[in-house]
């Protein structure tokens, strides 16, 4: 045994030496001088709020001299003292020019840039470099932080639901119907925190509770395959959440809130007496200290006690985040940061209801209660000068969960490590992003029938070239992943273009994607009450591509600024993995235990569609502002071969023949031609009007009727086990309109009070079979900012 361990360690060290060898070659570029413009005169670029504007292109006498660093600064040296014409260009800001007869040597010059006619958003996930979403070759939405704070939300998952074309159910997120319901096992949408994956190594699901609502600086949603940039799980898109950066002056934000649930529209659904609700606190504090403001600090946290609206399904949590950044005053090109976050949670989960009239009670009153402690540690080292940057960053994530129900009990310990080197270079019209990354995962749980390991490595390259009238993008990535003793490898490509005038932008893109099976999909064996979840060790990887053409019209007319965006898209998936219900077991003492869920490959599918979205800011009078954002998405998710037999399972009775499974034979409505658990129409809208000391706003989310589910849910015999699904569908065939409303009053410059009503009409809606959404709720928030 000891010899085996030594051989394993030796192999690991050999692999690590190879990684370090490549890193040493790539990081050798760090010893590069600053060129013609090195030091002497310091230019500092700020926005109207006094915050730095990184990545501002600086032109001296019409020649590109470089770009500002993370502090919004750049330094130069000249052979002569002037004159010089300086031009500043930054995404989302008006181009600024100024003229010097003589250079103010030895001094720092501060310049303020104003936001341009567009909304001033900046994203990083489209090309891994800062740019305006107007210039991206693919659809990218920016979700404003006010949608978190003003709507009094403690979970990013709820905020994501407001993005156009995005749907979330049971923690499973899909963009433009790129996937159905998977109960959190596997995801085609990659969720990032500060540009690094926040996906569990076992189930491959987004860790929503580790996304700090109290410390969000920005949130971006990329729609379409992005595996060439970020790898597996990015088949359907990316959601990136960026945490707060340190501010030069101290800033504190404290939010305390109290909420409660209203009675359901049908009185028989109310299972509790008295008042049921939640209470919580969120805070953040940012600052920089030191003689040169070289030490940056961010501390943020959340504590919430939520009894839940479902029987025995609470959601209690405590979270604390700390970020430290060091900006070297003697070597301003260098910065170092360390972020750490811990989460304690105690919550419940219910897969299926107990019936149409007991929809808020889990099946057989059995919910799974989970207690856990998770934490992440993120170190980063960055070198950036005017033309290039080198970034080494990593993430170590630990997930510890102890789950119990009346029929099962298990412990899950998962570990994930991620390390990435990213090199970015720009020269005239050419920009390059290249890098290497590696990750490992380890999970030990009875649910996965023991210990399993995951290892992956990738290399990627992307180039962007600006021809003035059009910018072309091309990228390639090669990734290899090994789950236990099974290895999968493949390259993926990406191409795109964005061009037009300053006010009218056209774009086109093509991106390939892939997703490898997760531990949960391959190995999970557990039960939810009487129903089972079955493993599938024969599951194969899925691959696909997405293509898009689009146009964005920008507006800046007096007090009105914004955009209207139209996109047509087409997605294709081969060997698509789906979470499917059926009789996957055989020979159990209780025949019911042969039924359950399993991930399977269902063949090839496609999703064509169109999306129209818009966002506007309108000035009203001297101090009023109306902000609107919304969109409508039409999709047609369909199988390419409805009669393709992708699996067989035993008949319902011992004497019954085996059943061949296909889209046609397993669907509740195969005539629709729509894939199971998908919508064809999604609509989102949010409007907020703010005037001096008060604000009022509302949100609307619409989805049409889910035309197709697993047909077994409507089987008369099976409905005796899980009753009410057909009745609920008959009463909800018109789709759902979910409306939220909010008001706020500013008591003083630093204090405000908000009141929010979620599900204003108390609509009874069903995100999937045997699950009802939350009833109307009310929340009151006190916010203090200094």
From TrEMBL:
<keyword id="KW-0732">Signal</keyword>
<dbReference type="GO" id="GO:0009279">
    <property type="term" value="C:cell outer membrane"/>
</dbReference>
<dbReference type="InterPro" id="IPR036942">
    <property type="entry name" value="Beta-barrel_TonB_sf"/>
</dbReference>
<keyword id="KW-0798">TonB box</keyword>
<dbReference type="Pfam" id="PF00593">
    <property type="entry name" value="TonB_dep_Rec_b-barrel"/>
</dbReference>
<dbReference type="GO" id="GO:0044718">
    <property type="term" value="P:siderophore transmembrane transport"/>
</dbReference>
<protein>
    <submittedName>
        <fullName>TonB-dependent receptor</fullName>
    </submittedName>
</protein>
<dbReference type="InterPro" id="IPR039426">
    <property type="entry name" value="TonB-dep_rcpt-like"/>
</dbReference>
<feature type="domain" description="TonB-dependent receptor-like beta-barrel">
    <location>
        <begin position="285"/>
        <end position="760"/>
    </location>
</feature>
<keyword id="KW-0998">Cell outer membrane</keyword>
<dbReference type="Pfam" id="PF07715">
    <property type="entry name" value="Plug"/>
</dbReference>
<keyword id="KW-0813">Transport</keyword>
<keyword id="KW-0675">Receptor</keyword>
<comment type="similarity">
    <text>Belongs to the TonB-dependent receptor family.</text>
</comment>
<dbReference type="InterPro" id="IPR012910">
    <property type="entry name" value="Plug_dom"/>
</dbReference>
<keyword id="KW-1134">Transmembrane beta strand</keyword>
<dbReference type="GO" id="GO:0015344">
    <property type="term" value="F:siderophore uptake transmembrane transporter activity"/>
</dbReference>
<feature type="domain" description="TonB-dependent receptor plug">
    <location>
        <begin position="136"/>
        <end position="238"/>
    </location>
</feature>
<dbReference type="InterPro" id="IPR000531">
    <property type="entry name" value="Beta-barrel_TonB"/>
</dbReference>
<keyword id="KW-0472">Membrane</keyword>
<keyword id="KW-0812">Transmembrane</keyword>
<dbReference type="InterPro" id="IPR037066">
    <property type="entry name" value="Plug_dom_sf"/>
</dbReference>
